[in-house]
Amino acid sequence: MAPPRFGTFSIVAHDPDTASWGVAVQSKFVAVGAVVPWAEVGTGAIATQAAANPAYGPEGLALLRAGGSASEVVRRLTDADPGRDERQVGVVDVRGRAAAFTGAKCMDWAGHEVGDGFACQGNILFGPAVVRSMARAYETTPGDLLDRLLAALAAGQREGGDRRGMQAAAIYAVRKGAGYGGSDRWVDLRVDDHLSPIEELRRLFKLYDLTMLSREDPATLVPIKGEVARGLQHDLSVLGYYTGRFTGTWDDASRAAFARFVGEHNFENKQRDDDRVWPSIVAYLQDRAAAETARRTGTAPIVAGALSRGPGAQPTGGAPSPRAPSKAKKSPK
């Protein structure tokens, strides 16, 4: 059975400044992020689409890993594929050389544009302006690889994108040690089914960027003292993490409350020990405190005192839940 055709526009790219590779994609095809993007640190990135051949991903990365250039990899993948006329693929290699292929039987409009360090490709599009605008957006948008990939997707959609509509989007990027726990998987976000998948992807990325990445400029760090400290104490108090006075002095109790908040809200990547804070954390705390105040104002109390305690307040009364006894594992003989 032939694989289903699906209209898609994507970009593969390499940023030499951060030694990163990535793919961004949108399609009227559910869970497109499970099919199109492939990337590996020190190797390159691949997008396989149209009547996508999933084997192009692992086989293409193997060819890149062996030293093949982007154009060589595209040629070898398509030459060996009897279904090449219905395939579309974009490749960027370890040095940022890019290449793309659009099969003769890909549904109109189908085509690609290759630039310095990137390739944009698409099929079943409103027209060539889709990939052209993606290329211009990638070339002109400030920021790192992630900012530019997302800008390219948005630009393609503004020109009409997939002429059947929108459904799914994804961004996948790799960078040495930049992912969670020191992995190379820098960003791996998918919107599998949504009326506005690119906007939803950007929303998810904003949250992921805030909680999991470390991309902010150290020059923007703010000393925690005076009004900044007083504001943090106030917001931490509203959320139930801090019980002291709002003195504006960043003492041990304030530091402990802030550290607990940071840990519980997955901001370990932004924890510091120099009494400085990222502006994004200040803004996030302010938003959460305002939401908590609104909750107390607009919610009818069910449990006495429940609305006067923030989510960070320590539980009162009752014994902890019983823990199952741990079972020692036997060593293999």
Summary keywords:
single chain; 333 residues; alpha+beta; Glutamine Phosphoribosylpyrophosphate, subunit 1, domain 1; Muramoyl-pentapeptide Carboxypeptidase, domain 1; six-stranded antiparallel sheet; four-stranded antiparallel sheet; 8 helices; elongated
Task: Provide an overview of this structure.
The protein has 333 residues and is α+β, with helices and mostly antiparallel strands. The protein folds into 2 domains: 8-203, Aminohydrolase, N-terminal nucleophile (Ntn) domain (Glutamine Phosphoribosylpyrophosphate, subunit 1, domain 1); 219-299, Orthogonal Bundle (Muramoyl-pentapeptide Carboxypeptidase, domain 1), CATH 1.10.101. It contains 8 helices and 12 strands. The chain has a 6-stranded antiparallel sheet with strand order 7-8-1-2-9-10, covered by helices on one side. Helix 1 (56-65) crosses helix 2 and helix 6 (226-238) packs parallel to helix 8 (279-298). The radius of gyration is 25 Å and the shape is elongated. The mean pLDDT is 91.
In short:
The protein has 333 residues and is an alpha+beta fold. It has helices at residues 56-65, 70-79, 129-140, 145-158, 197-212, 226-238, 252-264, 279-298, and strands spanning 8-15, 20-27, 37-40, 44-50, 87-93, 98-102, 111-115, 118-123, 168-175, 185-191, 222-223, 276-277. The chain has two domains: 8-203, Glutamine Phosphoribosylpyrophosphate, subunit 1, domain 1, CATH 3.60.20.10; 219-299, Orthogonal Bundle (Muramoyl-pentapeptide Carboxypeptidase, domain 1).
